[in-house]
Design a protein that fits this description.
The complex is a heterodimer. Chain A has one helix spanning 100-103; strands spanning 5-7, 10-13, 19-24, 31-37, 43-50, 53-56, 65-68, 75-79, 88-95, 106-107, 111-115. Chain A is mostly beta strands. In chain A, strands 2, 4, 5, 6, 9, 10 and 11 form a seven-stranded mixed β-sheet that branches. Chain A has a four-stranded antiparallel β-sheet with strand order 1-3-8-7, with no helix packed on it. The N and C termini of chain A lie far apart (36 Å). In chain B, a hairpin with a 6-residue loop joins strand 4 and strand 5. Chain B is built from no helices and eleven strands. Chain B is an all-beta fold. Chain B starts with a strand and ends with a strand. Classes of the chains: A mainly beta, B mainly beta.
């Protein structure tokens, strides 16, 4: 079981470019959660997705950020026209949808985005 | 009031010490509670779930007081390897909410 796979591990983008972060959940998991951790800050919930559906996007910034979890392939967090304030660690977690409130989430290693 | 608040830290203790972390949460409808551990520049990893009756895992003991909306973590006989940031996590609704964490540094 490969666990939650995120790539790339590190991503450098110039201001104004687009950033695409990918997350493949653990085998058997169909629920994906994205969190952002700014330097010296805690993890902030961004969005919760199931296959082909956004369940809760209450933590997503209103502009430039979007997420999807297609029927086939990984979940994608997309940040358009990046700014320096988007520099952060982005963590993805997955769950089976039935046990997360008993066993918590399993996190991927994260993608560290640096905007220069 | 923040959803999940933790002791600001950092806690600097010698090996063998006992250290306690506290956490309060604001949503009385919260139904699940955890402590996660995060090492520098790594992903958070589940340390233990927290149950109403309290639970223990080796040197670690977690307590939950629903009436006071308060969670605690006790670490006995601290090891150098316990140095990390400890995150209080509360589940309500569709996602887990993380506290900012308390940093523990254990020295020899």
């Amino acid at each position: 079981n490969a666990g939650v796979m995120q790539n790339p591990r590190h991503l450098v983008r110039r201001r104004g470019q687009e950033a695409r972060l990918r997350c493949s959940p653990m085998k058997g998991h169909s629920h994906v959660y994205w969190y952002r951790q700014l330097p010296e800050e805690g993890l902030k919930f961004m969005v919760y997705l199931q296959k082909e559906n956004i369940i809760d996007e209450s933590g997503m910034p209103k502009e430039r950020f979007s997420a999807e979890f297609p029927k086939e392939g990984p979940s994608i967090l997309r940040i358009q026209q990046v700014v320096r304030g988007d520099s952060a660690a982005y963590f993805c977690a997955s769950s089976s949808g039935t046990e997360e409130f008993v066993y918590g989430y399993t996190f991927g290693s994260g993608t560290r985005l640096t905007v220069v | 009031r923040k959803e999940v608040e933790q002791d600001p830290g950092p806690f600097n203790v010698p090996e063998g010490a006992t250290v306690a972390f506290n956490c309060t949460y604001s949503n009385s409808a919260s139904q699940s509670f955890f402590w996660y551990r995060q090492d520098c520049r790594k992903e958070p990893k589940l340390l233990m779930s927290v149950y109403s009756s309290g639970n223990e895992d080796g040197r670690f003991t977690a307590q939950l007081n629903r009436a006071s909306q308060y969670i605690s973590l006790l670490i006995r006989d601290s090891k150098l390897s316990d140095s990390a940031t400890y995150l209080c996590v509360v589940g309500a609704g569709t996602a887990l909410i993380f506290g900012k964490g308390t940093t523990l540094s254990v020295s020899s």
